[in-house]
Amino acid sequence: MIVSRFAPSPTGALHLGHAWSAVQAHDRAREAGGRFLLRIEDIDGTRSRVEHVQGIIGDMAWLGLSWDGPMVFQSARVPLYADALERLHAEGLTYRCFCTRADIAAEIAAAGSAPHDDDTPPPHPAACRHRSAAEIAAKLATGEPFALRLDMVAAATRHPGLAWHDEIAGEQIAMPEAAGDVVLWRKDAPASYHLAVTVDDAAQGVTHVVRGRDLFAATHVHRLLQALLGLPTPVYRHHALLTDAKGDRLAKRHDAPTLADLRRDYPDGRTLANALRAGTLPNGYAST
């Protein structure tokens, strides 16, 4: 049975790009007689808001999208992520990273890395991977905060030649090395997106992950984490993204119009959902 999910973060109101993704994930399951889940990715306690959770529920109802079973909140699942992290740590695949964002930016600049866009940041320079035990002990003694990173060199060596399938792009060979030593446990929050989403999809029995093309590169990392943790690999479907009249991808950080803004033109959200299904976008929007 197909199981898909929609997993928004309650850090702002949903916009048209969220509706575009939610409709596709919902329909992928419903058309096959499967289950559709709603997961709230509220792992970032400093930015997540209860009012945004209520807004998500209201927007889903307005669009005519129903889900199966109770909503799942990542904030209630931290012990699962901690267990997964401990397994990786016990195998020597993680290390403490004390670098600040400024430290990382300076190292990348010094190395002459080519510029990257917001969705594919340059790989972490992995300076902390080479710290001596004495250096680490000294930093811990002063209470210096740290994140936990995956030692990508060690991890990828254990599972070469991994593959995953995308329903649009076809068969893919995993290339997680391009992401560098990704964070698994953050300084300012519990588990990172990479670890939490991998653990949750497996725990919830998700068989088909429908999400935007901006997360295509992340799937290479998730495939490796699945292998390291002995978890199943879903089928993926990375759909096109929506852009505004200027060609900018719809995103919260770009102040994309919210679904609440669209209610003036679409009193019944099911009309908007059906328009998205038909590929008919509101004026000024395009899929790329």
Main β sheet profile: 3 strands, parallel
How far apart the termini lie comes to 30 Å
How does the helix and strand content classify structurally?
alpha/beta
Low-confidence stretches: 110-118
Strand content is 15-25%
- Estimate the mean pLDDT confidence: 90
User: How many β-strand stretches?
Assistant: 12
Which descriptor suits the 3D outline?
A: globular
Helix/strand order: EHEHEHEHHEHEEEHEHEEHHE
Tally of separate helices: 10
The largest sheet has its strands arranged as 1-2-3
Radius of gyration (Å) = 20 Å
Helix content: 25-40%
Characterise this structure.
- Residues 110-118 have low confidence and may be disordered.
- Strand 6 and strand 7 (170-173) form a beta hairpin.
- The strands form 5 sheets. This protein has a 3-stranded parallel sheet with strand order 1-2-3, with helices on one face.
- Helix 2 (50-63) crosses helix 10.
- With 288 residues, it is of the alpha/beta class.
- It contains 10 helices and 12 strands.
Topology diagram in text:
Layout: E1 3-6, H1 16-30, E2 35-40, H2 50-63, E3 72-73, H3 78-90, E4 94-97, H4 101-111, H5 133-141, E5 147-150, H6 152-158, E6 163-166, E7 170-173, E8 183-185, H7 193-203, E9 208-212, H8 216-229, E10 235-239, E11 242-243, H9 259-262, H10 269-277, E12 286-287
Parallel strand pairs: 1-2, 2-3, 9-10
Antiparallel strand pairs: 4-5, 5-8, 6-7, 11-12
